[in-house]
Design a protein that fits this description.
Blueprint (H helix, E strand, L loop, with lengths): L4 H26 L2 H9 L9 H15 L3 H20 L15 H16 L15
Helix pairs in contact: 1-3, 1-5, 3-4, 4-5
Length: about 130
């Protein structure tokens, strides 16, 4: 049987990076006005909304290619904490009709980012096996 931790890390990096990047592309097209409104409604500066571009465009690209992967993954995790706090708190304990957690997508993004943050990119990355940049 084929076994490779590095291949598993690659699959996780690609899934997390691509799926978060799709959200970032939507924000590049539509702007961050909604996030800005959510931030001000919670007493936070509207300018923080531009951090979504870092958390949903720059960081996912770094995760995908495996360069500065750990810091990029932690940025994605922080981005997800903000998303849950600003938009999804009302559903934090909610279940769906099918028995799943209402925030399972957000939770999966958050915990996948945490996992990548702890594991790093692996050898199949731009940072390679040196560990300096992955």
């Amino acid at each position: 049987m084929f076994k490779s931790d590095d291949t598993g890390k690659l699959v996780l990096r690609l899934a997390l990076g691509i799926l978060i990047l799709l959200h970032g592309i939507a924000k590049l097209k539509g702007g961050v006005g909604f996030i800005s409104g959510q931030l001000t409604a919670h007493g936070l500066p509207a300018a923080l909304a531009y951090g979504a571009y870092i958390g949903e465009v720059v960081a996912p690209i770094l995760v995908i290619v495996g360069f500065f992967t750990r810091p990029a993954a932690w940025i994605i995790a922080i981005n997800m904490v903000f998303a849950i706090f600003l938009v999804h708190m009302a559903d934090l304990g909610a279940m769906t009709k099918q028995g799943g957690w209402a925030l399972e997508l957000q939770g999966m993004f958050l915990f996948a980012a945490i996992a990548v943050g702890f594991m790093g990119a692996g050898r199949l990355s731009l940072g390679g096996s040196t560990g300096k940049f992955n």
